[in-house]
Structures are given as C-alpha cells and as structure tokens.
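job 3f2a | input accepted
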Amino acid sequence: MYSERVRKLIAELPNRGGLENPTHSGTAENPICGDLVRIHLVLVEGHVEVVRFQASGCPATIASAAAITEMVEGQDLAFCQALVLNDILDNLGSLPSARRHGAEVALQALRSAVDG
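job 3f2a | predicted structure (116 res):
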C-alpha cells in the first residue's frame, strides 16, 4: 500500500520532536479524520537551520511531515514557500489517493509556519 520511502520515514521518524525556541511554528489539522501536524523552524538569515515536526494521525500524514522536514532543512524561505503538493508526493513515491490528505495537512502546517 505504501512506498518503501514512506515505510522508511515511518520507521526512522527523522526530525521528530519539538523545539524550545523556534523562530517559526505552524499547525494544521484535518477536522474530519483528526490528523494533526505541527512544524517548528529555526530560520537564520532566511535559511532553515533547524526543523522539527510533531504529528498524529495516519502513516501518510506522519511520513509527509517527516519528508517535508528533510526537504526544507538548509533551504531558504522562498524554497519553503514554493513547495507544492506534488513535490511532497514525488518525494514519498506517491501516496494512495485516499491518503493524500496527509500530505496536504503537512504542507498546510509548513505554510502556516513560514507565512505566519
């Protein structure tokens, strides 16, 4: 059902956890299924120096949040703002259509962090 990349992210959970003093944080939730993602960033001179996530919900949501953290670490703010759903799906090796909402929630959390 899930790609090898998704299974690896779920097993390893890279960048999982919170940050004591993030410069930016964002949260998104799917009110229908209850998936929840928080993204915490430390931006230094416009670049993501540290990124962490907290997520609950289906494996697709958790893997999407982890993938986003790997994608944006070391990148500039413009890169973070330009990410789109297909970028995440490509990174994950796709998701079943019924689980794509997980990537949407994770992306909304990132947008909330960088735009807020």
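job 3f2a | The CA atoms of residues 26 and 116 lie 7 Å apart.
job 3f2a | closed
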